[in-house]
Specification:
Layout: H1 2-14, H2 21-31, H3 37-45, H4 50-77, H5 107-120, E1 125-126, E2 132-134, H6 135-138, E3 158-160, E4 167-169, H7 174-182, E5 188-197, E6 209-219, H8 224-239, E7 245-252, E8 255-264, E9 281-290, H9 292-297, E10 306-313, H10 314-322, H11 335-338
Parallel strand pairs: 1-5
Antiparallel strand pairs: 2-4, 3-4, 5-6, 6-10, 7-8, 8-9, 9-10
Helix pairs in contact: 1-4, 2-4, 3-4, 5-10
């Protein structure tokens, strides 16, 4: 009879005295799995007469509760116990736990912070802007001619092309300079860090996105000498007093006159290496006096005010600082690469 079976199993459960986790698992497999005793008794319960079901149902539910409680108590008794059949290798709960593994700052974040701190000490504020820009702020206001190569699909990611007002992923943070000048009147002294995008093939030396920091200073009687002195100070702070600097004439649509600035290679100390292509010099930024057309485009009187601007790639600065020769490492999120910077502070 069903009642007799239940009584027999209740006595067995009450006598259950496990000595290991293996005993507890054996109990579960015998009584509580889908083909175990408890499930089997409930299947058998369906065949009893209606008169017996009321009384047997109560007994059967109590039996099921007893089995589940007994298993839970036994499981708790051996919780955390990793003993084998011989009782060896018990976990020592007094041992210290595993510590949390701390992450590290990305090398680009470390270098960006270092650059920003240098210019903040010179009175520059930080300005930020949109990564999606219109044609005016990204090109036209900066004196880019309609036929300029930078407008071509080979250099620019176009989000939407409209007659006279293309929408693009910004190709430089100079667009932030335009918005800053449009929003007020001089003096302006600001730096603009951020991510920019160029439609270029990805390689060890180039990427379709990278990071820039640009600077702008507009006021009365600002000269190229002010620009040179600012950049001299920046280089000495970042690379050391022994770093040599040279300026070479160049061309940018938004500055006149324009220059590129080289520093003596910090890796080979000017002797010549792969990083500087055996020249002893590395170009780190472009700069120049803000073109009067750009000032006028932003509503600033170019006869009263003058200014200078400069821009550098953070990846280039980071390459020199940490001797990293493959730009792709910066965006691959390889923890083996990032772990090298755990000792760096920010």
């Amino acid at each position: 009879m069903l009642q007799d079976k239940i009584t027999q199993y209740i006595e067995e459960i009450k006598a259950f005295a496990p000595t290991s986790t293996q005993d507890v698992e054996a109990f579960r497999l015998k009584f509580l799995v889908s083909k175990g005793i408890v499930k089997g008794l409930f299947e058998e319960f369906k065949t009893v007469s209606s008169e017996e079901k009321r009384e047997l149902g109560k007994v059967l539910n109590e039996f099921k509760q007893l089995a589940e409680n007994s298993y839970a108590e036994a499981l708790e008794q051996f919780e955390g116990d990793s003993t084998d059949d011989q009782g060896a290798n018990r976990t020592d709960l007094t041992l210290p736990g595993s510590g949390y593994v701390l992450g590290s700052r990305h090398p680009l974040s470390l270098v960006r912070k270092e650059i920003v701190d240098i210019f903040k000490k010179l009175g520059f504020i930080i300005a930020d802007g949109n990564e999606i820009e219109d044609d005016w702020h990204n090109f036209s206001a900066l004196n880019f001619a309609p036929e300029h190569p930078a407008r071509d699909m080979q250099d620019t990611f176009f989000v939407k092309k409209e007659e006279g007002n293309d929408i693009v992923l910004r190709t430089h943070t100079s667009s932030v300079q335009v918005r800053l000048m449009e929003a007020g009147q001089p003096p302006f002294r600001a730096i603009m860090p951020g991510r920019v995008y160029r439609n270029e093939a990805i390689s060890a030396r180039a990427h379709c996105f990278f990071h820039q920091i640009e600077g702008l200073y507009v006021d009365e009687d600002v000269s190229f000498a002010d620009l040179k002195q600012t950049l001299y100070h920046f280089v000495k702070e970042l690379y050391g007093e022994d770093t040599k600097v040279r300026f070479r004439p160049s061309y940018f649509p938004f500055t006149e006159p324009s220059a590129e600035m080289d520093i003596s290679c910090s890796i080979c100390k000017g002797e010549g290496c792969q990083m500087c292509k055996q020249s002893g010099w590395v170009e780190i930024l472009g700069c120049g006096m803000v073109d009067p057309n750009v000032l006028e485009n932003c509503g600033i009187d170019s006869k009263k005010y003058s200014g200078y601007a400069f821009g550098m790639g953070i990846e280039r600065i980071t390459n020199l600082k940490y001797e990293i020769r493959d730009l792709r490492l910066f965006s691959e999120n390889d923890v083996r690469f990032l772990a090298q910077f755990e000792t760096e502070t920010i």
